[in-house]
Amino acid sequence: MPKQRLEGTIRRRGGLWQVFLSVGLGSDGRSHRRSVTCASEEEVRAKLLELNLAKSKGQLERLRPQDVRRLYGQLLAKGVSVGMVHHV
Fold first, then answer.
1. For residue range 30-74, what is the model confidence (pLDDT) as tens digits?
2. Which residue has the higher pLDDT, 13 or 86?
3. Would the pTM count as exceeding 0.70?
4. C-alpha distances in angstroms, 41 versus 11, 66, 81?
5. Biggest alpha carbon distance in the chain?
């Protein structure tokens, strides 16, 4: 049986592993991606499979600005320090 090809990128950065998956284009025409950082290559490969399954079921969407504001508000209410977010 041939190996299943998954959409996404895996890379090692420092001692951690990262996976990136495109979740579509925004209204500005730019690509929006979901990224996850894991401790091991096995974890990141499992996360890539999980993200691909979620995307195929339509369960993976990009975060809207109001979602991010709500999340920061919840973190601040719990006393979690929220630092600066930099877009690259």
1. 888 888 889 999 999 999 999 888 888 877 765 565 666 777 777
2. 13
3. no
4. 9, 33, 29
5. 51
**Cα–Cα distance between 88 and 71 in angstroms, integer?**
21
How big is the chain, counted in residues?
88
**78: three-class secondary structure by DSSP:** coil
Distance CA 51, CA 59 (A): 9
Residues 58-72: b if buried by 16+ CB within 10 A, e if exposed: eebeeeeeeeeeeee
The vertex-9 CA angle with 88 and 43, nearest 5°, equals: 110
Task: State the pLDDT confidence band at 88, using cuts at 50, 70 and 90.
Answer: very low
Cα distances from 2 to residues 5, 51, 67, in angstroms, run 9, 21, 39
Give me the residue label for tokens 């990136």. Answer: 20
How far is C-alpha 31 from the chain's CA centre?
A: 13
